[in-house]
Amino acid sequence: MLRDKIEEAISGKLYISVKELHKIGVSKSSISRLTDNGSLIRVARGVYSLRDDSKDNKYLIHNKYKIGVFSHNSALYFHNLIDHDPDVKVMTVNWNYKLSTDGKFNVKFKYVDKKILRLGMEMRSTSFGHKVPVYNVERTICDVIKSDTKMDRQIVNNAIRNFVKSGELSIVMDYASKMGIEKKVRKKLEVFL
């Protein structure tokens, strides 16, 4: 049976992509039929699930905006530098990335030169266990300092204060140099040292 085949392919995960469905022999028409009869649930474009009881929004957002990297407040949460998961997720994309927002997700985009888009990117697990791209803590500190006038000052200051206690300042300064914000980062960090 087709559903059993899909359950085996999902094997403990929440989602399966169209690409993975095609790999196990599920055709487009079968996907439509399974979706119509409720056996398969479309949770985002190209992403399906067998159940509708929980949604890993970060994974779904990543799946929709594949080039994006979770940054700013969203990255601060991944690094435990803020204690609440922001309602609005922040992703960084390159300047010429064509976005088609559908209103399904509450995402704010930051834009950077393609040369530094992947600088400091790492894969982190969501609370559901899916891997998504997130800036490492050092790149995140550079981003929040760069955007400090557009962010809650208390969040920025607390994040920097907590980072300075155990963070790697030389990596931050290396990233700041590559991002062209070395002077601003140095000045802000000096306040917390």
Please provide a written account of the structure.
This protein has 193 residues and is of the alpha+beta class. The chain has two domains: 2-49, no CATH class; 57-192, no CATH class. The protein contains ten helices and eight strands. The chain is elongated. The mean pLDDT is 90.
Question: Can you give me a brief rundown of this structure?
Answer:
Helices cover 46% and strands 17% of the residues. With 193 residues, the protein is α+β, with helices and mostly antiparallel strands.
Counting helices, strands and paired strands, the structural category is: alpha+beta
E-strand count: 8
Low-confidence stretches: none
**Termini gap:** 63 Å
Strand content: 15-25%
**H and E string:** HEHHEEHEHEEHEEHHHH
Q: What proportion of the residues is helical, as a percent range?
A: 40-55%
User: What integer value in Å does the Rg equal?
Assistant: 20 Å
Major beta-sheet overview: 3 strands, antiparallel
Domain module count: 2
Characteristic terms for this protein:
46% helix, single chain, 193 residues, alpha+beta, 2 domains
Detail the topology: elements first, then pairings.
Layout: H1 2-10, E1 16-17, H2 18-23, H3 28-36, E2 41-44, E3 47-49, H4 57-64, E4 69-70, H5 72-78, E5 89-94, E6 107-112, H6 114-117, E7 121-125, E8 131-135, H7 137-146, H8 153-166, H9 169-179, H10 182-192
Parallel strand pairs: 5-6
Antiparallel strand pairs: 1-3, 2-3, 4-5, 7-8
